[in-house]
Amino acid sequence: MAYSLEARSPFLDPEVMEFAASLPDDFKVRGTQKKVFLREALRGWIPDDVLDRPKMGFGVPLGQWFREDLREWSHEILLDPSTLRRGYFRPEHVRGMLDRHARGVDDASPRIWALLVFELWHREFVDAAAPRAEPAMA
Questions:
Q1: Please, which residues bridge with residue 46 across strands?
Q2: Measured between alpha carbons, how far is 47 from 55 in angstroms, rounded to an integer?
Q3: Can you spell out the DSSP letters for 100-126?
């Protein structure tokens, strides 16, 4: 939740939280249906098809971003010599995947995203934690 889209701030009001906590369990959950009281309170104000639909994620256009705005950045990160020296990724495979994606031949956005997240995580937590070599004393 630290970096995702959230629109729950009215439900974080202390009085609203206290009220929700005071409700009996069957007002909150009934079988597999959750937020029973809230849904029923909003019926007539919000269309039933909205209230009764399954939970939906919030998609982002990664495919387009990796072809346009984030193309250069993703190439720089994934084809950086330090990235490739680690030996986790096969350079020819990464280059081919990025090229096919950029040309629109393949939607490799989930794989590109996974590799980027892994590489950036590695830089942040593994590389940063590695002991630095002390300069030689003369």
A1: 43
A2: 15
A3: HHHHTS---HHHHHHHHHHHHHIIIII
Greater confidence (12 vs 78) lies with 78
Query: Rounded to 5 degrees, what angle do the CA atoms 97, 99, 101 make?
Result: 70
Q: What are the angstrom distances between the C-alpha of 12 and each of 15, 16, 18, 26?
A: 8, 7, 10, 21
Q: 30 forms bridges with which residues in the sheet?
A: 33
The first and second tokens of residue 13, run together, are 């009001």
Per-residue pLDDT at 61 exceeds 60:
yes
Name residues whose C-beta falls within 8 Å of residue 33's C-beta, 6 or more positions apart in sequence.
39
Cα separation, 17 vs 15, whole angstroms: 5
**Taking Cα atoms as reference points, which of 127, 19, 31 lies closest to residue 80?**
127
Q: What is the residue type of 53? A: R
Q: What is the mean pLDDT of residues 56-72?
A: 92
What is the rounded CA–CA span in Å between residue 76 and residue 27? 52
Tell me the percentage of the chain whose pLDDT exceeds 70: 91
Instruction: Give the gyration radius of the chain's Cα atoms.
Output: 24
Closest by CA to 21, choosing from 37, 44, 40, is: 37
